[in-house]
Amino acid sequence: xxxxxxxxxxxxxxxxPTRSSDIADDMEIENAKAGAAVVTSKPAxxxxxxxxxxxxxxxxxxxxxxxxxxxxxxxxxxxxxDWEKGxxxxxxxxxxxxxxxxxxxxxxxQDEIYIRYQSFKDCAEFxxxxxxxxxxxIDIGAVFTHPPKDHNTIKSDVFHTKERELxxxxxxxxxxxxxxxxxxxxxxxxxWKYMNMAVKVMDEGLSxxxxxxxxxxFYSGRRGVHxxxxxxxxxxxxxxxxxxxxxxxxxxxxxxxxxxxxSSNLHPMLVRAFRVLEPQFIADIIGDNGMGILTxxxxxxxxxxxxxxxxxxxxxxxxxxxREWSKPTCTKSPTQKWAQLKQKINQATKKQQGKxxxxxxxxxxxxxxxxxxxxxxxxxxxxxxxxxSKMQNxxxxxxxxxxxxxxxxxxxxxxxxxDSFDPFAxxxxxxxxxxLDEYEKTHGKAAAAKVPDWQKTSMKSSVQYFLKTFLNPMxxxxxxxxQDMKDREAAVMGDF
Length: 496
Ligand SMILES: [Zn+2]
Known about the structure:
By secondary structure, the chain is an alpha+beta fold. It is 44% helix and 10% strand. The protein folds into 2 domains: 11-251 and 384-487, Alpha-Beta Complex (DNA primase, PRIM domain), CATH 3.90.920; 268-380. The longest helix is centred in the last third of the chain and has 36 residues, at 460-495. Zinc ion is lined by residues 179, 181-182, 187-188, 190-191. Zinc ion binds next to α5. One of its GO terms (cellular component) is alpha DNA polymerase:primase complex.
């Protein structure tokens, strides 16, 4: 595994940026210490006319009764450890029961209650609890040494986390410094492109640099994406190792007037990311269809101002380009402007490098060359909410939940077709509930009864994708491992 960070980091840059977060809305929850209060309450946000349409207790009831994939979630999160299989070789029968779940429930419209440290022996208990409580939101925590529901009766020095998927949370609110179309919780198809880019870079990095195989991405339901890395090696990572993996992917993107201090001998991960990101930067960011950073004078002057100061003054490139691009006769497209800017930088740096290698010009030309990379990263590189990844016991919203504000299902993302993902086309709660009725009307009651409910709705393709590319291959791998253990045990017994 490669844990070396691609960035030379100063101590004061190590702290991850924190963002203000709304517990009811967001995926992150403070890590309460074991033994801390289980139930917290806060006034619920007033229902807007919008969420009155997309989300209601009645619709949610139907969803938990007929559509939430309890068995699939159990199959996934038990990792082959079945209560039913008892003490069979390799089976840890109470594995699922040591997982922390948390529910956000809303007993009255004015109140929101958040219940931590719940745990369920098996799929039946889990299903019954969700159907009884009707949580607005379900969060998944770590697997502990003991069932979390017993945490008050267990000595705190023996109650601790044992394992947890390595998770990543990427949220469009962290892109407010670069997106010009929306801010805060608002999103549009323009800024959603950032999420596609982030998924591509992270997915490739996690599989190529860390060798992870069992990974799955989800739409968070509103303005971001979540990644769950489920390989055994990932689940067993200590908090320090998690921080190292997360930090490996982190770049200091915040201050646009400050160099990222990247080495000119760029880390292979960053070289690879650049190959993914620069074409998207050109296609989706610089033009009018994106953030427009090379479409009008105000924007390009802002960008040109970020060129290294020494380079800017010694070459006059910024002023020259601004003059040319501002002419009423200039017909250059943003793509042509970017190409021209790069070409000018390369020409100027070659000229400067031709002079003495030891003079200050060579330093400025190096930083000007790196400016091209930094600019692309600044505008496209994944912005992780790094705190979510660092701790085993950080809770993350459960896949297949319904987002109470949008009514959208947290569905898996097809990473191979990520560019065609449209967050506004994600099935909503009223839609899928209506689809159940429509299916019955079209096919008749008897025929409809034979088909699993999720297959009658527009959740179908994403659930199938989840099964085919993630859950089934992982189950096969676990079964094979279990069989190998049994075979080895049988061979040892045969020796006696
Ligand atoms: Zn937007």
